[in-house]
Design brief:
Elements: H1 29-41, H2 61-75, H3 82-91, H4 93-97, H5 101-110, H6 117-145, H7 153-169, H8 180-196, H9 209-215, E1 223-228, H10 234-252, E2 260-264, H11 269-281, H12 285-290, H13 298-309, E3 313-316, H14 323-337, E4 341-345, H15 361-379, E5 383-388, H16 412-415, E6 418-423, H17 425-429, H18 442-459, E7 462-470, E8 476-483, E9 488-491
Parallel strand pairs: 1-5, 1-6, 2-3, 2-4, 4-5
Antiparallel strand pairs: 6-7, 7-8, 8-9
Helix pairs in contact: 1-2, 1-5, 1-6, 3-5, 6-7, 7-14, 10-11, 11-13, 14-15
């Protein structure tokens, strides 16, 4: 009888009992021995692998111990050779079992050159990664078969993705010193790219002329905090920026635009989409939600929906996300679709993580902001995090927010590269409409009403974006047009007048 064959016409290996032969995990003992021998021959070989190779990545624990011992000696400015390592072999039974001092002598004697030391190290590192992949796969299978009710299927997927991404980053973040010429080339390249663009934007555009001029765009690796009291328009401004960046990417395809990942921890994706529809179609969002649209307006809604449908804008409305889960989903989006801008609405609704959950909310917010700053650097994209402000703002006569209003939130001010506040004076003026006093004459009352109307007219449809902190440039205030009916922001006209409304 002919042996059974696979579809590739290859006879599979069989074990003693006739079943499939067990597979051994990937390992390369020859590469491990060659690297150890190269380091023994010339300790400078260690410099070529020290940044990415660790003792636990050796498949043979004895070889890992030798590597660790040599690393300690070299890091202490001592020579690592057969003589200095002799004491280690005399004390460790595991090392004695593989041949003692004679094993070291054979390693040193078989080494010819240190030229290939990095290649040996990469081979060892790659075999370790493959073994870890096998381990993650086995854990996935075991957890899926398990009956742990505390770990849902979705939680298992998230945990497995986190393990895979952590594994992918092992040995990849090889830092170290860079010559100034390398940094200068990067800086000049960014300046040249900004010079060639019409708006002189370094990073991702906000879509607002004056705001881009003040910020230079949204810079990669920056954490931008957009803060304000409720009803000031934080979410509206964030969705406007998301739309503008995604549209720039769609229409121009250059670095000025971006694929946008919007984490909406407060509103559902449908509510967010309705806001965008209202803005583009210029129809009040509550009317769209209730279906109170005329036959003349319906084509505008359809056209706006078709325009939004093509945008590289992705919304995740999962509530109470941890920073770890947020990081995992952002990494996945960047891998699958590309990612140039992350927006979180808003950071007080995020969680630091189950393991680091603290009763001190200030400390937990600090962990969240540090995590978001780390995410911005890791993915090299700007991260906009919306933030609430304390009620202390309402107690002041001038209710414009200040950096001091963030102090209750831990390290937000410290971790952020840019802090912006959104403020609408019109909101407060509407609640200060004069009421006639009992002992007030008509003339004085009318005078007060006239002054109030004048102030209200000046503030109508105006919003201030107050830049309270910026590492890369000046602070100050940028005035924008705001229409609350459509949750729409826009640039003010050059003459200082509001843009015409349709």
């Amino acid at each position: 009888m002919e042996p059974s064959r696979t579809d590739n016409n290859v006879t599979p290996l069989r074990g003693i009992d006739g079943g499939p032969a067990p597979r051994t995990p990937p390992r390369n003992l020859e590469a491990e021995q060659a690297l150890l021998g190269a380091i023994l021959m010339n300790n400078r070989a260690y410099e070529r692998v020290s940044e990415f190779l660790r003792p636990e990545q050796f498949s043979d624990p004895a070889n890992g111990k030798i590597y660790q011992a040599m690393a300690r000696l070299i890091d202490a400015n001592q020579i690592a050779d057969v003589v200095t390592l002799k004491a280690l072999f005399e004390r460790d039974q595991e090392l004695s079992d593989i041949g003692g001092i004679g094993y070291l002598a054979r390693l040193a004697g078989s080494a010819i050159t240190i030229v290939n030391a990095e290649d040996y190290g990469r081979t060892i590192h790659d075999a370790h990664i493959r073994r870890q992949l096998i381990d993650v796969g086995e854990q996935m299978v075991n957890h899926a078969y398990g009956a742990d009710m505390e770990l849902s299927g979705v939680d298992q997927i998230e945990k497995s993705e986190q393990q895979l991404f952590d594994l992918a980053s092992v040995g990849q973040a090889e830092g170290g010193f860079k010559p100034i010429e390398t940094a200068l080339k990067t800086a000049i390249g960014m300046a040249e790219a900004a010079f060639k663009r019409a708006g002189h934007v370094v990073g991702v555009t906000t879509g607002f002329r004056d705001l881009d001029a003040r910020l230079g765009g949204l810079h990669p690796s920056d954490l931008i905090v957009l803060a304000g009291r409720p009803a000031m328009g934080k979410t509206a401004l964030a969705t406007n920026i998301a739309y503008n960046a995604a549209r720039a990417r769609l229409e121009r395809g250059d670095e000025e635009g971006a694929v946008v990942g919007f984490f909406s921890l407060e509103m559902s994706s449908e509510q967010l989409a309705t806001r965008l529809l209202a803005e583009r179609a210029e129809i009040a969002s509550d009317r769209i939600r209730r279906g109170a649209i005329s036959h003349e307006e319906f084509p505008r809604v359809v056209q706006a929906a078709q325009e939004l449908h093509r945008l590289p804008l992705h919304i995740d409305d999962t509530p109470a996300l941890t920073v770890s889960a947020l990081r995992t989903r952002a990494r996945r989006l960047k891998r699958q679709r590309g990612l140039g801008l992350i927006i979180i609405d808003y950071l007080q609704l995020a969680q630091a993580g189950k393991a680091s959950r603290s009763e001190n909310r200030v400390q937990e917010i600090s962990e969240i902001t540090r995590g978001l700053k780390s995410l911005a650097k890791e993915l090299n994209v700007p991260v906009i995090a919306l933030s609430q402000l304390s009620r202390a703002v309402e107690q002041r006569e001038d209710k414009r927010p200040q950096l001091a209003d963030l102090r209750e939130s831990g390290s937000i001010e410290q971790d952020a590269d840019v802090v912006m506040f959104i403020y609408r004076h019109e909101y407060y003026l509407q609640r200060e409409e004069p009421q006639k006093r009992a002992d007030e004459s008509d003339e004085k009352f009318n005078d007060r009403v006239e002054r109030w109307q004048q102030r209200a007219e000046e503030a109508h449809n105006r919003a201030e974006v107050i830049i309270g902190k910026q590492r890369h440039g000046p602070t100050g205030t940028v005035n924008l047009f705001f229409d609350g009916n459509f949750t729409k922001f826009a640039d003010l006209a050059d003459e200082g007048r509001l843009p015409e409304q349709h």
